[in-house]
Amino acid sequence: MKKILTIVLSMIIATIFLTNCGGKGDVVEVKGLKVYEDATMGFSMKYPENWVIQQVPGARFLVFTSRAVKSRFVRYDAQGVAGAKIEILFTSLDSNITMDTVIANKLFEKDYYTNPVKVTIDGVQATKQEFDFELEDGPFHGEVYYATKDNKIATTIYFEAFGGTFDEYKKSFDEILASIKLGKKIEIKKDTITVVEEAEPPSQTLRTVSGEGYSIDIPDNFSKEGGMYLGKRRGDSYIKVESFDASKTKDFGKLVEENRKKLTGASAAQNITINGEKAAKVVYTPSGKVAGEMYFVLKNKRLYRVTINWFKGEEKDFKPIFQKCVMTLKVQ
Q: What CATH number does the domain located at 206-331 have?
């Protein structure tokens, strides 16, 4: 009799253990909502008070269910801890960067996204898209919203979740979305003194990350946010790698020139080599305070484009390490 009870008890324990390993067993309860405010953008929103936050005033705000899932979101691993992320990104709009370009900048393949629909956020019209795909531990699902309050600042809002847990957070996500006051351009008074705790510049220690047909080394204190590799210090200083179908033309020079003509203050293309591959480099000026370089590599009917941007006032901290990262690019 004791033997039977022991076996039954073991089976119950095993069932409980398996039920709580991965998937929806990793759901972190929303215990309450607090209000986050970014005075530099006039932005505010509710967020789960027991989740892990990361913030760069004037650039972005992120909330994760746990530190473990935060690490998974860096590479969007196929398997790991289930959980969710809320992310807010601010983008300055001008003649070169419009709402259309912000909406077109996708983190994943366009086939994963639903058609855009119009919704209302903070009293203005916004664009919503959903995206999902299967991973080893279940479906990954997300929603992204694009809106602008003043046509000067675009606010991008992401709600994402691994392991089929999105529906567990849907009610909270909806409440958070309804609470959002969109970012806008704030005129700073001359007599206002703002004290900001500075984050670290890009690390000199690199780690390798991979994307669609490529790998590249980036500073180990950088993570992938909204399709860009960037750190906590500055939202305008980043590394971005993109891959495009180039099967319709073999003329590398023509592809480079088509891209170069769209850049502000672009130099003539320079022929260089990156990891043994024929490449081209264009220097340009994204804005008055930001400098940039764009690199191109054509291989196996795909055009790889690497963009590095940095704040001119901190060029010595960003430019050399960014250029070093570009030279580590490997394409398939």
A: 3.40.1000.10
